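Margin note from the TA: students keep mixing up input and output lines. Inputs are the sequences; the output is the structure of the whole complex. Example:
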Amino acid sequence: MKNLIIAEVHKLFKQGKTYYAIGAIFLIELIILFSAYSQGQSVLDILLDNLKKSFYFEGNLLNGNLLIYLILNTLWFHLPLILIIIISGSVTSEYKDRTLLSIMLQPISKWKFILSKYIVGILFTLVIVFFLAITSFLFSYGVFGQGDLIVYLDTLNFFEASDALYRIKHAFIFGAISMVFYSIVSITIAIILEETTKTWIAAAFFLIISNILLKVNFNNYFLDNWLYVKLTDTWQYLFYFEIPWGKIYWNTSLLIVYSAVTMIVGIIIFNKKDIA
Amino acid sequence: MIISGQNLSKSYKSIKALDNVSVTCAAGEIVGVVGANGSGKSTLFKILLKVMKPDSGTVTINSKRKKPIGGIIEKPALYEYLNAYGNLKIFASIQGLETNNQFFLDCLTKVGLPIDRKDPVRNFSMGMKQRLGIAIALLNNPECVILDEPFSGLDPIGITSLKNLIIDLAEKEGLAVFISSHILDELNKICHKLNVLKNGKLIHSGTTQELINESTFAFNITAPNIMSSSILKTHKASFKNNQAYVNVGTDKISELIKELHRENIHITSCVPEVNMNKMFEN
């Protein structure tokens, strides 16, 4: 198993597309920072014009914490999309190039092989989110410095700089779990569909539908609390004035269970399939 | 027997890809599988290699090795972005082989690949890829190798070189070799036995010599003075340059050669023409 995991990591980092993905994430960060640098202050001034007449804000609100929060919002769509492309590609490329057949001709078990794909997919996702977190902290604090964080979630919430840092760090941790879920789903879709383009379309469709349904209030306890789409934005709860830790732990636990079930389903399907 | 497939059947939706096929291969033996496209060769090999489950029938491999069987299906599937060394390393590491640099050099040398090529295998010729595919199939010392269409895409030099490698694997290392090809001429030169598949059914099976004899209907005889032969004219042979094309079966060729010798015809070659239609007839 260890050998399979090492081999998967080796393959992942020997492929150019992995570095394109990392480059794309880096570029998105830079674009967000550049946009904020060029237009952010004027946007904030318009938004807070009335509030500034009644309240005193310490420091510059266009600061590193706000920028990291903006970068954190790539967890909605940009980051999972890039992860889906790369991670599902680790399976579909093996089907396309028929290297899967060559692998299966060696004395290794099918379930161990595909489990190693899932494990490396999960590790890669965590590394990418960590990379996003580290670089966003470095760039944002480096260029804009620290300060209080203003976030609009139903209402405007203000957090002191130290509190903001605490919330952002935890948001990255819980956001990483959501990203892992999408990565696992993309591998399972790749196992089922095998073909690259079909997998990308299906996985991107899954992501879009998830984001649309997230905004829908079903007025049904089960759907509003158990449906997976209601669990992938848990990192946002860190920016409510009172952090609902109970809800966060429940959502995260359930999402981990869904991820494990999706992974087990993928392994079973892969085991039953002939390698054509 | 190292490997034996008994009464193998496999269907894809409405198509019967393999219908009650039985094949065997012993140590040191090269067994050919011949058939047109869609005859079931690749399906048979995938089942023997256990990457595909048959609907019915059994595959028995009499080997206690960790990797009893290796193979290539259709064409070698390699990690194109890695070099030959990198490919061998990946396939060796996933099966937990203890390796070092010398091990990989030996693997490359064994199949006649240059050891100084460091570029990705996407730059390799098909012949080199086939050789690397065989090197990967041979990792972990299997007792049987299955090579599906190994000659496709190779030039004549590549074919000769690969044939010699396959013969060496069987004769010197005692491997059981299953091989398929569209090029019957190449198979009949190296195979001890042939199996002919048609529409998923095994329609002929036997020694290569038996099957070739049964399906040979003519010979191409070459000699510098062939035009002066009167016996060939009685056989209504057709002549072109120093060649005569004569319609005789294998049962009569020996007598014909003797008569040509008596006519002082100095034969330089005598090549059987195999009737492919007859070979592929039930």
